[in-house]
Amino acid sequence: xxxxxxxxxxxxxxxxxxxxxxxxxxxxxxxxxxxxxxxxxxxxxxxxxxxxxxxxxxxxxxxxxxxxxxxxxxxxxxxxxxxxxxxxxxxxxxxxxxxxxxxxxxxxxxxxxxxxxxxxxxxxxxxxxxxxxxxxxxxxxxxxxxxxxxxxxxxxxxxxxxxxxxxxxxxxxxxxxxxxxxxxxxxxxxxxxxxxxxxxxxxxxxxxxxxxxxxxxxxxxxxxxxxxxxxxxxxxxxxxxxxxxxxxxxxxxxxxxxxxxxxxxxxxxxxxxxxxxxxxxxxxxxxxx
Length: 289
Fold this sequence. Notes:
It is built from 8 helices and 10 strands.
């Protein structure tokens, strides 16, 4: 969403952003008060906000938008791992976007609808400094189309990078600085200067380095899924060391999907999501005793 009291500025930024294949401009507003109303209706992921505007300035509008649209995060344990949900108010209901973490290393890419092709990432450790990241895509009710497969094999479509011939190593990688294109970045053609959504994610992840001093880390409410995942992994490691079986080893409870759905305000979100998953895949996730 774009907010500025100058119409030409809104139009210019709108045209620049709309030219990006992975960006949708959901709305614009000429002042802070209008921005609050548009944000409540469209729930934008990013707001480009001017500061000095009539009626209401950008600082006050940003505070109100964050208060009314900031997602609330919840986590529920399941035998297979975690149910991770984020909700925002939408009219008289709450809009829930629910992801799954499947032990030990699978994460779903959140789906916007039950007709969407589902995506999974598998983060497979190799050693203390490296891991393989596998991308998996499928649709539970139909075969993948030739167009979908061609796009993914060519590194288009978001979740798969373009690969070097004859292997699984990305063409754009840390060794060549992900082929970052500064002129394209300056012109606005590539906002990050790197081709490919997955390559952009890889660049951010890999450029952090191989180790981090966790004593300097400051986790907040939106990191609830990270906190719960670490606790489950540590508990699992202790159980296996004591002779126990790792959770989810039988694979039966992996029959789950990500979900985006509206629920009545105040509903038991985890139970409602379990019911939706059961309807869509024919089984229900197992809740730990």
